[in-house]
Every structure is written in structure tokens, then in C-alpha cells.
């Protein structure tokens, strides 16, 4: 359906009254344009209305009639919004002209496509950090010895050089932290003397209590539990935590979700409430999470998707179970790790554009027995389609979802995260080619002009044969992506990635090399 203004008004009035639209089918509009007054609308009014629309609506409007299509085509600002949509981006505040913004976007695209960075900068880091993070253009690490210090490096961009801020003692012995620089937020997890687990919600810029937190220190009863193998994440106003409560592997998991702004405990699940063999936890959004489960011995493994209420205490609702590829009955899935790029509550400060949170890829690392590794890639939007499911949650066999909505590849062991940002993934270093960097971009539309089929554009299905591998049957997947390979001058042990940067870590793990695009 197409929304068309009811009556012709001066530009300011038309813009303010955009809520009053009549509904016409696209065929009707294109066949009888005068019936909805398109033919007598001045271009100025059309432009005023179009400037209030998002990229997807503008694309629809281009299909209405020639007048609308030409009006949009001839406006650089509207074309910029459409081009951002194609890259899954949201526009940030900018003093640049429309043509300058379009040029900046085109230059950024080409730089990533050709692997031609604008600058290369090195930063010293602690080689044995207690925890680290890379979010919103900031790399941070925290240590507990000899002091409980915290260092945040604002990484270089095309607009500014890097900046380092360090605090020698944050006053607590933090076990882990999560952060969102777009909210000026850092959350430290620690254990109090009264055997409570606590989250300290602080401002990143001052490390003082965060002004939006009604209770800057949020505590939960540990019930004599330990805090081991911690998975801590932040998504907007939600803190998510999965941890093991003892050294044993069975029956020792706990999931805690809190709203850090209101101080409300939302979810508190123990092993008795969880599926067997939970291996990993990931926040999909501020109202949903997934659990990766290896299952029993010889099980293929599953992904369980849950939704929850972000305002009050509630039991989360499992909305779907996605089965992984069936495996040989004599083999087993030992570990499953689900990793996505960070969820940023706001636009990145100083950036001309930022990746939309609904345009993210989930990289699922599958570790089978006999040291056999695979990586499975799935768009977040596929998970999110199940969030509106009511009633009995479906269990979806692999062959009903995987072949068309995923891509599986042979993998390698990873020991640092943040190798995913948005829909882009940097693959682990290949020991046989230590100077090679490989980037997978799942944010492409193969049919779009400019995305011509070539060696680097992978649109055809690929198959992992069952012979000699872990799987019971051939595993075929077809999610399209672009594969870029580049050789660097230096050797790195691992890579990280964000919107504007590729980051290499040296073999001593005491230096970052930041390539800025």
C-alpha cells in the first residue's frame, strides 16, 4: 500500500500534517494519478513530505509513479538516505552538505571494498587483561593486579585522532565489565563482602555513578554460588548475565537480567529452569535472548529463542527452538558460542552514520569432538521473526530453516571476541597464512546495481559433505555474502572489527594496530 497526502497545502503545513494520509494501492496510483492529486502537487511539497520519510518508504515511493521517482532521484539528500538503507545504516547529525555526505559514504564503502585504510595507528595494551571490550569506537580493558585499573582508548576515526583515558584504581575488584559509549555507560560486575553479586553502573567519562541509574549499585543474592565462566552483556537499558555457579559442569548455570535504569530484577533463572547443556547466552535485543545448547551426548544441538518483559519481573517465554545440522551418532557437539556485534542504544558520537541494531549477523562457533570446528552465520532478523509467536513454541528442524537462512563454513578456534560488527565478520587468523585477513560481509543485496557477481560475491549454495566430517548428511547453505581477502605487512594472532576499523593484535598480545577506514 502507498500513503498519499489528502490535500495540497503549503510546504510547512503539508509537512506538519503528514499524519493525515489516504491509502491507495500502488497500481491505482500509477494508473490514475490524478485521483489522489499527485498530478497537481508542487515539487516543493513532495520534497517536504519525502524528507520526513525513512529509506524504506522512499524506495516504495519510487515505485508509485514517474513524477515521484524523478523527484527523489534528483534530490541528493533523499538518495543519501536510500544509500544508507542499502548499507543498514542510520544517519547521524552532520554539518556536511548532502553531496559531501554522499561522497563520505561512497569513500567509506570503497575503502572497505578495496581494503585501503586512511590511517594506521598503534596502541600499547596490557597483555593479560582481566576483561576487555570494543564498542562504539572505544576499546577498553580492565585489570585487577597490581591494582584494579580501567583504561579506555577512543580509537582514531577520519575526524579525530585517538585518545587514552586511564584510572589506576576503580575502587572495586571487578570480575568483568560491559559498556555502551553511546550511553556513556560502563557496568562492572563484582562480588560484595556480604556474598551478593553486584553491578556498578557508572559513567564512562568520569567513572562516577551513572545519572540515569536510579540505584547505581544493583545487587542480587548469589545463594552461596560462585561466579565462574561469566558472559556479561548490555543492550540499551538491560544487563544480561550468564554464569556458572561451581567448577562442575552439570546443573550449575544461572541467568540474570536487570533493568539498570530502574533497578528492577527482570529474570532470574537457575539450572532447573534451563534446558540441558546450555553452552552460551546472547542478548538479541533489549527484550529477547538466545541460549545455545549442545544437548545430550550425540545430540546435534539447538538454539533456543526467548522473549521477556523489560519493565517488570517475569518468566521469559521460549518462542522457538532451532535445531542444528544432524550429526553422526558416534560424534558429539562439545561447545557452542553465539557472538554478535554490540547493541548500541544511540548513534556513535561523531560518526556520520551508525549501523542499525536490526542489521546484525550472529556468528555461531560450533566445536565438535576430534577438534572439528565450524562457523554458522545467521541474520538477527531471522531470530526476531519468532518473537511475535504465541502459543506452543515451534521446534524447527535444520532442513526447514538452515539451508535458506544460514551459511556454514569450516572454522578455526577463536579466543577473543569482537570479531563481528553489524553484518561484517573478520575470520580468525589462518596459521598457514599469518599475514592474511579475510572479511565476510553479509549486508549485501546481490540483485542491487553495483553488486555484480564475481569471485568475491558468494551467492551460490555451498556444501559441507558428510564423508569424513561430523555431519550425518551433506549440509548445504546459501546465505549470500561478500568475501574479501587482503595481505598485510605484519603478523597478527587475532583480529577485531568495528564500523570504521580493522584491529590486529600482535603475538605478544600487548599491542593493537588500528587500521581506520
From TrEMBL:
Gene3D superfamilies: 1.20.1280.50. The lineage of its organism: Eukaryota, Fungi, Dikarya, Basidiomycota, Agaricomycotina. Residues 41-81 form the F-box domain. This is F-box domain-containing protein. It comes from the Eukaryota. InterPro entries: F-box-like_dom_sf (IPR036047), F-box_dom (IPR001810). It comes from Mycena belliarum.
Amino acid at each position: 500500500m502507498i500513503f498519499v497526502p489528502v490535500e495540497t497545502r503549503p510546504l510547512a503545513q503539508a509537512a506538519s500534517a503528514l499524519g493525515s494520509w489516504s491509502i491507495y494501492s500502488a497500481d491505482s496510483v500509477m494508473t490514475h494519478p490524478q485521483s489522489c492529486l499527485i498530478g497537481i502537487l508542487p515539487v516543493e511539497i513532495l520534497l517536504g513530505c519525502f524528507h520526513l520519510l525513512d529509506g524504506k518508504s522512499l524506495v516504495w515511493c519510487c515505485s508509485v509513479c514517474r513524477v515521484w521517482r524523478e523527484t527523489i532521484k534528483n534530490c541528493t539528500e533523499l538518495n543519501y538516505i536510500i544509500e544508507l538503507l542499502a548499507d543498514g545504516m542510520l544517519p547521524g547529525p552532520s554539518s556536511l552538505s548532502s553531496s559531501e555526505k554522499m561522497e563520505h559514504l561512497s569513500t567509506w564503502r570503497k575503502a572497505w571494498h578495496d581494503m585501503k585504510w586512511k590511517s594506521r595507528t598503534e596502541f600499547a595494551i596490557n597483555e593479560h587483561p582481566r576483561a576487555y571490550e570494543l564498542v562504539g569506537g572505544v576499546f577498553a580493558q580492565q585489570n585487577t593486579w597490581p591494582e584494579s585499573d580501567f583504561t579506555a582508548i577512543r580509537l582514531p576515526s577520519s575526524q579525530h585522532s585517538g585518545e587514552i583515558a586511564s584510572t589506576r584504581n576503580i575502587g572495586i575488584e571487578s570480575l568483568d565489565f560491559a559498556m555502551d559509549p553511546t550511553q556513556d555507560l560502563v557496568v562492572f560486575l563484582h562480588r560484595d563482602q556480604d556474598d551478593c553479586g553486584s553491578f556498578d553502573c557508572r559513567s564512562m567519562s568520569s567513572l562516577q555513578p551513572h545519572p540515569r541509574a536510579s540505584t547505581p549499585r544493583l545487587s542480587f543474592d548469589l545463594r552461596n554460588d560462585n561466579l565462574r565462566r561469566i558472559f556479561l552483556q548490555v543492550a540499551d537499558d538491560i544487563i544480561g548475565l550468564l554464569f556458572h555457579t561451581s567448577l562442575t559442569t552439570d546443573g550449575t548455570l544461572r541467568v540474570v537480567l536487570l533493568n539498570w535504569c530502574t533497578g528492577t530484577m527482570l529474570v532470574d533463572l537457575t539450572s532447573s529452569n534451563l534446558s540441558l547443556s546450555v553452552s552460551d547466552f546472547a542478548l538479541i535485543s533489549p527484550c529477547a535472548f538466545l541460549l545455545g545448547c549442545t544437548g545430550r551426548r550425540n545430540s546435534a544441538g539447538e538454539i533456543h529463542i526467548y522473549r521477556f518483559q523489560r519493565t517488570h519481573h517475569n518468566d521469559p517465554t521460549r518462542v522457538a527452538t532451532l535445531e542444528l545440522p544432524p550429526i553422526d551418532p558416534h560424534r558429539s557437539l562439545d561447545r557452542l558460542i553465539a557472538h554478535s556485534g554490540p547493541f548500541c542504544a544511540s548513534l556513535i558520537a561523531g560518526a556520520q552514520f551508525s549501523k542499525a541494531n536490526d542489521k546484525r549477523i550472529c556468528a555461531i562457533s560450533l566445536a565438535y569432538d576430534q577438534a572439528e570446528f565450524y562457523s554458522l552465520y545467521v541474520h538477527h532478523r531471522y531470530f526476531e521473526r519468532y518473537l511475535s509467536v504465541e502459543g506452543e513454541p515451534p521446534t524447527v528442524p535444520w532442513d526447514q530453516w538452515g539451508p535458506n537462512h544460514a551459511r556454514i563454513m569450516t572454522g578455526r578456534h577463536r579466543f577473543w571476541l569482537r570479531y563481528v560488527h553489524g553484518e561484517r565478520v573478520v575470520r580468525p587468523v589462518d596459521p598457514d597464512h599469518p599475514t592474511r585477513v579475510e572479511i565476510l560481509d553479509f549486508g549485501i543485496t546481490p540483485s542491487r546495481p553495483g553488486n555484480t557477481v564475481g569471485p568475491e560475491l558468494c551467492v551460490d549454495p555451498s556444501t559441507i559433505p558428510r564423508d569424513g566430517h561430523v555431519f550425518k548428511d551433506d549440509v548445504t547453505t546459501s546465505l549470500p555474502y561478500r568475501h574479501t581477502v587482503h595481505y598485510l605487512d605484519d603478523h597478527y594472532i587475532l583480529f577485531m572489527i568495528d564500523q570504521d576499523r580493522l584491529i590486529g593484535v600482535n603475538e605478544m598480545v600487548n599491542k593493537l594496530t588500528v587500521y581506520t577506514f
